């Protein structure tokens, strides 16, 4: 009795973990990300899993340092209260990025390794394509990283590969279906759909559902009239309306636009199509927003891939592939457990685009982590882009889907970005920073804090307390740091704290961790910005005005007609996922600070029905090609390091070495490999970016 | 001392495993493959690993039932004598397949679970594409299967995904390089290749190797003349000679032929290209033939992707991506451990095409297994197609690459196939078998044994003893079975044994196991069929005459010119990998039995330089499109089940259920899923096959 009661307690109520933290001995100057990662030996992942209260049958180990966590845990701990939920967002960044991932990792290192508070970081999985898996950035950086970095960046546990497989299966089904409908009679199609197996013909349950949808109340395949057979057998997809693209996790510019179906076997039914980067697949957004296998299946089935010739949406379910997609994704749905440099737990799960999707890691990882940390613990997750985009989507899309209530927002700022907003010269990837950024300049900082103030106000719209985390660079002066913290608090931040995690790890973020703990204890008055039942236009206008500070919005005729169509199709009550530049609060990347009096142009509107959002494209089409038309190109910019020259330089210095081609020891096999990825190959494949 | 000595013994010399075998309770009639698989609970893979002598740090667990085995084991056990090496091959099959995989699995179940002899089965990983991961066949069948079947068929540990990533990275590098060379000056290219990093310009080691290859003896980037800069910077790839295709593990007919590079950013440099199925990538053949990470890197670098404008081969190394490819493949190189229905160990590793590649699982899996079973143990592996193709390639290509010496060949025959060779009516997928096949017909069997005799003689060319395994079907009569065994022995088989593994598991193959053990104890007089130093034409002729029984070969002008080119390029001394139909000993699928007096037409010749073979295409091009031009189409035929209606029916009966859409319980999450893969979707996507 006593022992089973004790076990019950242990299972239901998480006390502080007895976590064996890994010690850091930070070097100065700070070595490259890869050197730091490789210098630390991670704990065996099963040890970590045990330390944080996972049962042996709740994990599936992948190698020594990664494990998938089964969703059954949510059932076991369903009566356990959730921990505190903290979002890391940022001010409007320079093209170089301001360090949200490092703050996220640094904060959990501080909470768990230094304050002995249970905490979890939940991060996005990066695309492998643009950099062949060898890059810094998404895993954090400096002494605030997820390790091992190469496992994080290469394949992980195959989730993106599963998405690729599922996405492309659906793509193949679309074109093949059109071909068959174009080349076969109603009867032939029907005989294939409902074949006679050992003399018996029966509808499958997915087909019965389709009959119901079509208003045909019959269950005997032989009872359908000719007209009903035709209605049942033909999806009548209009090829010009296909929005479902093939994907690859490779940055292959020659697949941006192509003509497919040119083999004689395809009988002339060729059409123009494109490949997107795998993480741009709607299936990635579905993975990020789902909360169970059953829900994922529903969402996958709802995905709209085209319209039929009557303008009605055609879904994956109509194509009959929902089950196959779900089976391919059955392992990908389980979050991936890894650890920080200091041995604290991290989930890496899902990595949807931050523009055409919502840019947040998975709901499931957050939910599981919130149970594992226990009521007094913390889950820290990150939203892509500036707070005006990533945080707004986190609240209005992700929290709406999950039902989770955030307790605090950490808003990451840098002196560099603030100086830019204050009127400093433009910051460009690959070009050395101007003097204004490397020397003290109080006036620029003071003027630039308008952006910080605005982003704080945006967070406050949602009723959540804001802690400003100033990510300190070596060149920042005491006066600059003090000024930012002072102005942030004056603008309504709960607190504002300088952070030094990059150079010394969690120890450098202890003050931030204390401030977050205090803010989160105050209780949240979280509210959504808009009611999803509002018309699509109203929801867009609300975001544009309340968040971006626009005077109004302006819809192109195309956008208006799409809105009408989606509304008529019954998709009007979905939340909005704005596809806007992250380099300005407005639609114009060069408008820094807090732009005013602008009209936000909505050039087009698209929909991810399975993921569950409408995404308006902001700006003229010609401004957006690299964001929307060529996600790979954009993806490169974002992940590759061309907007983060430091990580690129770190990469080339470390991986390519002083001699630009150095030995990279693969610890797993104790074989030394010449990593022959010359700078040219990076540069060559991606030089369309510069 | 004593204890360390004992440990040494245990580590160096494998005694009989103390393996906990899983009990079978075979049902009659035999349920579907999936039902059988799901009714058995596999051992935890770490338990299995320990039972067979793997140390804890030699495995990387993937979930509960799969693990990767590290290559470091080969170093630890390098002084351990190898076990016996047994190949399972087959007679010329009907389009329905004759059961080589089930015999392979049944044989190890008998050896280990019933005779207490250490044994390992080494199998190929099947493509996931053609059937969305839901098919039978490659995992064995009936009570001779690898479990869990769905893990085997879905993703496994991601090896094929890694191949896809590496293959497509190389493809992207080719087109991008051509674009850059077409649009940039020598100087601009050179500056990208050898950039100034912090004011310093240096060649990487891969670039120094390239300089050496070009005969430029300089190490200072600034010392090159203009002409040398141009020579160094330009690969001058001739786009019309590109043989490297993109791949996907999806059966997507619209990607068979397409025009890529149509986005404005590609500046008009569009060209026609195609996608192949992922397992057709040369990287898969490299994975199957390599014996270490260093060797894999060399092979990947040697892969020829095109010719330059002077007709010289351009390699992956010339493109500078060797290291990146190797890094992407660093985990894929480790064999995957699974188990049979009776709990005996299996490696599943690599699955190259059996036509354009050699159709055998990996050298590394065999090498590791041969150490693990110990000197008295057995490793059983399978070769694709009939013995005239799969076995010939196993000996001349795989054994040549590995240096391993086979001890015995198991030749699988069925009464059904023999009747076909004896003049029985044609056997067609999807059409019920004619009476001749379901009723006793001694004459047809007697006449058909000519094919069996010929295949026995082929094996004897290599000096290896042959045991005939007659895979018994329910309709086979005692007289038929006895006749086959009698004629097989008269033809020189060491033994001939009826097998019942499909219906009762290893117990049904004990007699075969005893025969194999005895044959293998006799010592092998293995020899290659030809000397690789012979001219390409002579090697082709030797195979055609000695193996197929052709009178001679006839080269098309294209084939002759390719042979001349490869010889001139220095590739004349590679072994030969014939791309011939498996449905006849000749090039004509309808010529059954032992065709005579035919001239084997060689329509074209291609090369996989990294894998290390030349592959002549046999037959006129118009006969081969589905084999060579459309590997996906062929792949479908091969793996999908259209040539194995039983597995297709099993699939549809089990997965789709009596109602053609049934519930498929995903044990991992205890969630019941409607598997909505209707018959139509299979049929629809693949109906170009029938």
UniProtKB/TrEMBL annotation, chains A, B:
Give GO terms for biological process.
carboxylic acid biosynthetic process; tetrahydrofolate interconversion
Q: Which GO terms describe its cellular component?
A: cytoplasm
Gene3D superfamilies per UniProt: 1.10.8.770, Formyltetrahydrofolate synthetase, domain 3, P-loop containing nucleotide triphosphate hydrolases
What Enzyme Commission number(s) does the record list for this chain?
Answer: 6.3.4.3
Q: PROSITE patterns, alphabetically?
A: FTHFS_1 (PS00721), FTHFS_2 (PS00722)
Which pathway does this chain act in? One-carbon metabolism; tetrahydrofolate interconversion
- Identify its protein family: In the N-terminal section; belongs to the tetrahydrofolate dehydrogenase/cyclohydrolase family. In the C-terminal section; belongs to the formate--tetrahydrofolate ligase family.
What is this protein identified as?
Answer: formate--tetrahydrofolate ligase
Organism, per UniProt? Canis lupus dingo (dingo)
């Amino acid at each position: 009795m006593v022992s089973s009661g004790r076990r019950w307690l242990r299972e239901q109520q998480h006390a502080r973990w007895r976590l064996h933290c890994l010690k850091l001995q930070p070097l100065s100057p700070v070595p490259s990300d890869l050197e730091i990662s490789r210098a630390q030996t991670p704990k065996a992942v099963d040890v970590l899993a045990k330390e944080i209260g996972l049962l042996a049958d709740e994990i599936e180990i992948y190698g020594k340092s990664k494990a998938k966590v089964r969703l059954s845990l949510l059932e076991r701990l369903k009566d356990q209260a959730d921990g505190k939920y903290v979002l890391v967002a940022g001010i409007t960044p320079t093209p170089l990025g301001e360090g949200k991932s490092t703050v996220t990792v640094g904060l959990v290192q501080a909470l768990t390794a230094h304050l002995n508070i249970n905490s979890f970081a939940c991060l996005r999985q990066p695309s492998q394509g643009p950099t062949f898996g060898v890059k810094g950035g998404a895993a954090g950086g400096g002494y605030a990283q997820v390790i091992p970095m190469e496992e994080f960046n290469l394949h992980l546990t195959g989730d993106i590969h599963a998405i690729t497989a599922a996405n492309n299966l659906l793509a193949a089904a679309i074109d093949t279906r059109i071909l068959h409908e174009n080349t076969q009679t109603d009867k032939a199609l029907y005989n294939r759909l409902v074949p006679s197996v050992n003399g018996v013909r029966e509808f499958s349950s997915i087909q019965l559902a389709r009959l119901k949808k079509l208003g045909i109340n019959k269950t005997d395949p032989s009872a359908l009239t000719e007209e009903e057979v035709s209605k049942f057998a033909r999806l009548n997809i209009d090829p010009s309306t296909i929005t479902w693209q093939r994907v690859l996790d490779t940055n292959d510019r020659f697949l941006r636009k192509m003509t497919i179906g040119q083999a004689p076997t395809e009988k002339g039914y060729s059409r123009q199509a494109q490949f997107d980067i795998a993480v741009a697949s709607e299936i990635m957004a579905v993975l990020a927003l789902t909360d169970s296998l059953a829900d994922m299946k529903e969402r996958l089935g709802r995905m709209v891939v085209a319209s039929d010739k009557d303008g009605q949406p055609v879904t994956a379910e109509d194509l009959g592939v929902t089950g196959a997609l779900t089976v391919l994704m059955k392992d990908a749905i389980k979050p991936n457990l890894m650890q920080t440099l200091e041995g604290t737990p991290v989930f890496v799960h899902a990595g949807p685009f931050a523009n055409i999707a919502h840019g947040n890691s998975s709901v499931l990882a957050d939910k599981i982590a919130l149970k594992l940390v226990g009521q007094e613990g913390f889950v820290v997750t990150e939203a892509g882009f500036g707070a005006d985009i990533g945080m707004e989507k986190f609240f209005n899309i992700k929290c709406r889907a999950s039902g989770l209530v955030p307790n605090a927002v950490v808003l990451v700022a840098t002196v560099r970005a603030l100086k830019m907003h204050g009127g400093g010269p433009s910051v460009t990837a690959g070009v050395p920073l101007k003097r204004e950024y490397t020397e003290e300049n109080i006036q620029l900082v003071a003027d630039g804090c308008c952006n910080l103030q605005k982003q704080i106000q945006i967070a406050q719209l949602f009723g959540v307390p804001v802690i400003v985390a100033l990510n300190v660079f070596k060149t920042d002066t005491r006066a600059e740091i003090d000024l930012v913290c002072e102005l942030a608090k004056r603008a309504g931040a709960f607190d504002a704290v300088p952070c030094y995690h990059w150079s010394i790890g969690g120890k450098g973020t202890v003050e931030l961790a204390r401030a977050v703990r205090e803010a989160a204890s105050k209780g949240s008055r979280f509210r959504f910005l808009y009611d999803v039942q509002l018309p699509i236009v109203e929801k867009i206008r609300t975001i544009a005005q309340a968040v971006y500070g626009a005077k109004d919005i302006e819809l192109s005729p195309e956008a208006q007609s799409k809105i009408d169509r989606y509304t008529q199709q019954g998709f009007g009550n979905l939340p909005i996922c704005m596809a806007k530049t992250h380099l300005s609060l407005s639609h114009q990347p060069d408008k820094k600070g807090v732009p005013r009096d602008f009209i936000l142009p909505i050039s087009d509107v698209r929909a991810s029905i399975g993921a569950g959002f409408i995404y308006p494209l902001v700006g003229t089409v010609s401004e957006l090609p690299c964001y929307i038309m060529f996600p790979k190109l954009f993806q490169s910019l974002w992940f590759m390091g061309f907007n983060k020259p430091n990580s690129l330089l770190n990469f080339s210095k470390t991986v390519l070495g002083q001699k630009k081609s150095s030995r990279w020891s693969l610890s797993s096999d104790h074989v030394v490999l010449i990593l022959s990825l010359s700078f040219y190959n990076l540069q060559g494949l991606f030089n369309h970016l510069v």
